[in-house]
Amino acid sequence: MPRTSRALPLALLSALLPAACASTSPSVADTSAAALRVEVPTITHPAGETPQWWYRSGAASAAANGAMAGRAKNVILFLGDGMSLTTVAAARILEGQRKGGPGEENLLSWERFPRTAFSKTYNVDAQTPDSAGTMTAITTGVKTHMGAIGVSAGRRDDCADSLGKQRLTWLQLADAAGMATGIVSTARLTHATPAATWAHSPDRNWESDADMPAEAHAQGCLDIARQMVATPYGPGPKVMLGGGRGQFLPAGVRDPEYPDRTGLRLDGRDLVAEWKGAHPGGVYVWNREQLQAAAEAPAVLGLFEHDHLQFEHEKDRAAEPTLAELTAEAIRRLSRDPNGFVLMVEGARIDHANHNGNAFRALDETVAMSEAVRVAAEMTSAEDTLILVTADHSHVLNFTGYPTRGNPILDKVRGSAREDGSPGEYARDNSGLPYTTLSYANGPGHTGASNRQPAGPKTYPHSPSSAEPALGRPDLTRVDTTRPDYMQEALVPLKSETHGGEDVGIWARGPGSEAVRGTLEQNTIFHVIVQATPKLRERLCAAGTCDANGVPVELPQPERFQRKD
């Protein structure tokens, strides 16, 4: 039976919701410790969860934590896709060991931020979520269904229904408010996370027109790539850096880097040309040298791969920028705007490596994102720039055994299968075999024979469509489990490892970061951003979405923020 939320007594509710008071007029805003209270209706879960309820509930949570006291000029959100707490802990140790230390004492760049919280990641229809629904919660303030891009909950295959459910993102809000905006990702720019900053689609897979069903075309839905170059709210993102050239170029047009590949679009549209038309003086680049040469361009579209960017481990750094370099380029360009900027940076391939059952690449990509966050922190000031670091969801990577202090994180456990074991020797399971510190609960690392590789340890890449039961565990004594292509053992055989459903972390620095504490619903992150950034909340208030205290509580309608020209 569904459970009904129990209403709190008014006195207790007031006590739980202290925050800085703000008004619709910045000149008279009161940021003292006066109590702010946002009324949230009591509902039955999940039946009563409307988009309006999710939005107001998130607003109440952010205001209760004091987000309205924020005075951020700029906002940077770093999204480590699939960056579970286990991934963070293991990457922290790997980075520390690369520096020559034991590793456990190390901190990734964002772990030095003063504010932390947990984020609850479920979708409205899924206990364990996907990247589209989770990122939409972060970008719109409304939780939604698995696979949704910028729309509130509905049917994933229903274009017509989704047209009335488009939700305003905080990047679109910033564009309408006159701030500079930017998107950086190591994935295709049409992939779930970057797409959810700007596009609206009931199905994350509708990346190009070739991916959409005829019925969706007929009902008026646009593919994600086409929406990414549209500018209905303002000038649009001044910086878009990522992968996915194929989704932006028409079929028959050869890729500039891979002559055997062509564009994927069937409608004949050249979206790179359309982007240039919408950004006079803007420059399109597809390699590192071109990006550096376009340093003074007022806007830049960088598509550095036909598909996703290469893993850091495989990247030709002379040709393809690192995530830290892309982040620095974006901040350098956006910070020229006197009105401030908002920027989303995604370390996308953390997720892909975990899905591949390859811990080396997952941790290596996390370390690369730590470098990007370090660069961003050094290039900005905590006095005027809110930086948030979080993940959209978890993964089923396990950190197990009793390895001795400083044991290489990718190696086999040295110590014992018991807490009181002696260090130095490999720990052994009940059958006498060694095992690794890191493993996956499921995925392609299952050691039974598959249709792709024989029984025993698996080597990256491995994407099987069938598997046989494992006949015991393989003997890893002479197997180098620290090599980049070793795939950690997985208990359940799957073609691709799955997400995990547990909470992920939020780390924050700068104005408004004090609101990042406790355990938050994921959609509250949106409200922390807009409440802590005066230009964003003022634009929402100008559209009539704020209460008497200036808290944006009413679900904004995108058409009210579009340009009138």
TrEMBL record:
This protein's record includes keyword Glycoprotein: no
Record's signal peptide: 1-22
GO molecular function: alkaline phosphatase activity; metal ion binding
Chain residues that bind Zn(2+): D81, D351, H355, D392, H393, H499
A Pfam family this chain is assigned to: Alk_phosphatase
InterPro entries membership: Alkaline_phosphatase (IPR001952), Alkaline_phosphatase_core_sf (IPR017850)
Sequence segments annotated as region (Disordered): 414-479
Positions contributing to Mg(2+) binding: D81, H191, T193, E346
Keywords: Magnesium, Metal-binding, Phosphoprotein, Signal, Zinc
Active-site residues per Swiss-Prot or TrEMBL entry: S131 (phosphoserine intermediate)
SMART domains: alkPPc
Name recorded for this polypeptide: Alkaline phosphatase
Organism: Pseudoxanthomonas suwonensis (strain 11-1)
